[in-house]
Amino acid sequence: MLAERGWLVRSGHGLYTLVPLDAETPSGWVEDPWLVVAKLYPTGYIGGWSACEHWGFTDQLFRDLLVFTPDRGAPRRAVTGVTPIRVKLIRPAKVFGVASVWRGTVKVNVSDPTRTIVDMLSDPTVGGGIRHTAEALTAYLGSEHRDDGLLLAYIDRLGNRTVYKRLGYIAETLGIGGPALVAGCRARISRGVSLLDPAAEARGPIVTRWNLRINVELER
Predict the structure, then answer these.
(1) 53 by DSSP, 3-state: which?
(2) φ and ψ at residue 59, rounded to 5 degrees
(3) What's the rounded Cα separation, in Å, for the pair 89 and 155?
(4) Where do the domains of the chain lie, and which CATH numbers do they carry?
(5) I need a surface site. Which of 11, 51, 74, 121 has the fewest CB within 10 A?
(6) Alpha-carbon gap, residue 143 to 158, rounded angstroms
């Protein structure tokens, strides 16, 4: 009854958020979706394009709020007000490189700047595609958050060596990052040919220097 009248907002299955009594109109009140994430996904973190927006690596706005969580019992999708929450499951060992930020009086977990970039390079779909990921990487490498040592360490800990290929190729092709970062990636790439963008068709030239099939052309 309270939900129908607008005094509760359904955030997930069996979970409701109270609408403040001082709200001008219950139907027009929308809670900060980050607060809902803190309640629904306490062991996870906000990442990908959502963290990219938070750290100022993009001007692009995404409709969904992206959450990484190791909790397989957590809802796969949730809605708070007008903001859908999309979930990506990860293994517990992959939860690292997380910062806590305050939203009012509540702490919310978000991937730190370096982990944000690593997640996007590991799975470009969480970064809005490889082109947007390349733009975010350019912004990161030109920002105060840049940390090449931490970047390589995070990739090593994540255990996906294809990230070295994508990072090195993008940095070299776009002329960003510098020779030391490119050399560090070159020394760590794996054998076998990987896709620059795993969401696109597996066609295009293979760059043997990076063992990478260039199935999407980057904008220089």
Answers:
(1) helix
(2) -100, -5
(3) 18
(4) 31-213 (3.30.460)
(5) 74
(6) 23
